[in-house]
Amino acid sequence: MGSEAAEEKTPYELLGGDDGVRKLTADFYGLMDTLPDAAPIRAMHKGDLSEMTDKLGTFLIGWLGGPQRYQERFGRVIIPLAHKPFPIGPSERDQWLMCMQGAIDNTSLNDSMKARLMDSFGRMAEMCRTKD
Ligand code: HEM
């Protein structure tokens, strides 16, 4: 109270909490499911994307500054290790980021927050790479 520094809101709060992050995740998989350029990474996923939509949404809620619920629901996850079974090179990484860029662009975040988030996703996606 009375503090001069404005509290910085988390991306989770700026997106509108759970509903906003769930929408971002649904948009992300919607793009992966329909963009022809994302067909190679779409094919790595199960036919039914609903389980992954729930999982990635739950993960991102925590990762973007909201409640950490992933571990209690699905167990401990180390994101780069979870991707070891998949052949992910620069092209697959960029397909993933293209879908996330589209989903982020569809939010009402300001441009600087969009760029900051894409930066973080870019670093995480690079850590998921399993081949050149
Ligand atoms: C670099 C490109 C990426 C590709 C091609 C990719 C692909 C995949 C695939 C194929 C799965 C398994 C899906 C299934 O079980 O049906 C998966 C799981 C998952 N991915 Fe990614 N992914 C990428 C990057 C990321 C990033 C950057 C994040 C987080 C910011 C992420 C978060 C997750 C999570 C939370 C799971 C579930 C893990 C588990 O259940 O053990 N992925 N991903």
Task: Furnish the topology, listing elements before pairings.
Elements: H1 11-14, H2 17-34, H3 39-42, H4 50-63, H5 70-74, H6 79-82, H7 90-105, H8 111-127
Helix pairs in contact: 2-4, 2-7, 7-8
End-to-end C-alpha gap: 51 Å
Number of helices: 8
Approximate shape: globular
Oligomer: single chain
The CATH topology name reads Globin-like
Q: If you average the pLDDT, what whole number results?
A: 95
Helix content: 55-70%
What count of domains describes the coordinates? 1
Query: Could you state the CATH homologous superfamily?
Result: Globins
Count of individual beta strands: 0
Helix and strand string, N-terminal first? HHHHHHHH
Largest sheet: none
Instruction: Report the CATH C-level class.
Output: Mainly Alpha
Label the CATH architecture: Orthogonal Bundle
* Low-confidence runs: none
Strand fraction band?
Answer: under 5%
List ligands, each type once. protoporphyrin IX containing FE
Which structural class fits the helix and strand makeup? mainly alpha
Rg computed from alpha carbons, rounded to a whole number of angstroms: 15 Å
